[in-house]
Amino acid sequence: MVCQRYVHPWGNSVAEGVLFVIAFYALCVVVSMISYRFVETPVNRFMKPAIATHAKR
Predict the structure, then answer these.
(1) CB proximity list for 16: less than 8 A, separation 6 or greater
(2) HEC profile of the chain
(3) Contacts of 17 (CB under 8 A, 6+ apart)
(4) pLDDT digit of tens for each residue in the chain (57 aa)?
(5) Which of 2, 7, 13, 30 is deepest in the core (most CB within 10 A)?
């Protein structure tokens, strides 16, 4: 859906399509790095004592 909406106005050039895929991949990598740093790491730090307590039982 994203490709149909945003790539179609640019035309059907292979180079533009490849550039779009590379840019979309880079965007996904950046978003996942930010998510890891600001969401997953604090949640793991918060949950670590609870997981350790549960593991001792």
Answers:
(1) 7, 10
(2) CHHHHHCHHHCCCHHHHHHHHHHHHHHHHHHHHHHHHHHHHHHHHHHHHHHHHHHHC
(3) 7
(4) 766 676 665 566 778 778 888 998 999 999 999 999 999 999 988 888 877 787 777
(5) 7
